[in-house]
Write a structure and sequence with these properties.
single chain, 264 residues, alpha/beta, Rossmann fold, six-stranded mixed beta sheet, 31% helix
Length: 264
């Protein structure tokens, strides 16, 4: 579904963010991009989405080079849930989520009854339908995250990209969000999410890409990649990976994740 070949990207000459990066994501899979803060995860997602153009390399989406897509076409194939979203106007939730239908509408078209019904069904699926008439700016962090996800889902994407989707959520909302992502994957949506938290990856991902210093350290099935040795190498601090009740759990032996790579 997604293939990147020898991607090279920098914002400023001499400060490489993505370094000869190659990876692939299978259709219908849940893939976690795992790595310390500041290692290029957000930049990578923005490159996949076509928001950033690499200085070298190729990006292929659904069998087509990304350069062959119009911006409107890409928006019909992929959507992004950013780590944080600044809402510039005092939109009500239903108005804000309806913005996600823009790629599916013609020039100057107004949302139809079908569009409004889709928005309401999506809010209900995410269990935030009672927020429909609330201003987005008055929502809690967890509520706003679900509303941003709703806006991305009403685009009806084949690929859903999420940047650190659990970073601002409490345990209850984290579990709910991850369960929703599993349900979407079962419906055929390809899920790619970045995270610095190995446990979030272990809960739902079938594939993991370990990213360090803008390069792929390892990639593959979660059972093969999420090991003590590889996570210790990725984060620069000793990590143990243990199987508990059918899934992998990480334990820090010393320090904190990414403490040797503090880059905002």
């Amino acid at each position: 579904m997604i293939a990147l070949k020898n991607i090279q990207f920098h914002y400023d000459p001499g400060k490489t963010i993505l370094n000869d990066l190659s990876l692939s994501v299978q259709k219908g899979s849940i893939t976690a991009i795992l790595g310390p803060n500041g290692t290029g995860k957000t930049t990578l997602l923005h490159a996949i989405l076509g928001l950033l153009a690499p200085q070298a390399g190729e990006i292929w989406i659904a069998g087509r080079n990304i350069s062959a897509y119009k911006r409107s076409e890409l928006s019909q194939v992929m959507s992004l849930v950013p780590q944080s979203e600044v809402v510039p106007f005092n939109f009500k939730v239903i108005e804000y989520v309806l913005l996600g239908r823009t790629p599916q509408l013609g020039f100057l078209d107004m949302p139809s009854e079908h569009d409004i019904e889709l928005v309401r069904n999506t809010l209900e699926m995410l269990e935030v339908q009672l927020l429909e008439d609330r201003p987005v700016t008055e929502l809690s962090g967890g509520e706003q995250q679900m509303v941003v996800l709703a806006r991305a889902l009403v685009q009806e994407p084949q690929v859903l990209l999420l940047d650190e989707p659990t970073s601002h959520l409490d345990l209850s909302n984290k579990g709910r969000l991850l369960k929703i992502l599993q349900t979407l994957a079962q419906r055929g949506v390809t899920i790619v999410f970045s995270t610095h938290d190995p446990d979030a990856a272990a809960m739902i991902a079938d594939h993991v890409i370990l990213l360090k210093a803008g390069a792929v350290l390892d990639a593959g099935l979660i059972t093969e990649v999420l090991t003590s040795e590889k996570l210790t190498q990725t984060y620069g601090t000793e990590v143990k990976v243990l199987p508990i009740e059918g899934r992998l759990v990480t334990l820090l032996i010393n320090g904190r994740f990414g403490e040797k790579e503090k880059v905002s």
